[in-house]
Amino acid sequence: MLIILAGLPGSGKTTLAKALARRLGAVHVRVDTIEQNIRNAGLEPGPAGYMAAYGVAEDNLALGHIVVADSVNSLTITRRAWRAVAERQGVPASEIHVTCSDKAEHRRRAETRVTDVPGLVKPDWAQTQARIFEEWDTKPLVVDTAGRSPEEIVIDLISELQIEEDYVASPEDQ
Residue 89 is part of which domain span? Predict the structure, then answer.
């Protein structure tokens, strides 16, 4: 299964992606990490970050792994590309739009979060608000992170996505 997360910076997407990947023993493919490493090599990422992420995801799906794709994914073209990765591997794709309905909380997160990717500069609140986020051409599952812990959301997602119990690690195993 390919679990495709999308959402504005500071919405809680990466926190949720990590918690979900940990709980499922899944592969976490994070575009921020790929793009920053391209910058660290002295290059501009452009579409290369997403293209590399699609390839890494596809390789891991081919090996039978669940993959959690973590990116802003704000454009129709990237969403279609993620779905094409799943289609080529013959696995289901679940699109999840991560939001934070509490604007004060979203702003606090955007302004105070610390990156765990060396060299990555996170967008500020103004840049986050100015981000183009195209309308969906599908109907994603919408997850609001305001006032909920990642653990609560992950439990709900596993149920909603109907992920078989065989894939779910117990909290003691994490």
Answer: 2-102+114-169
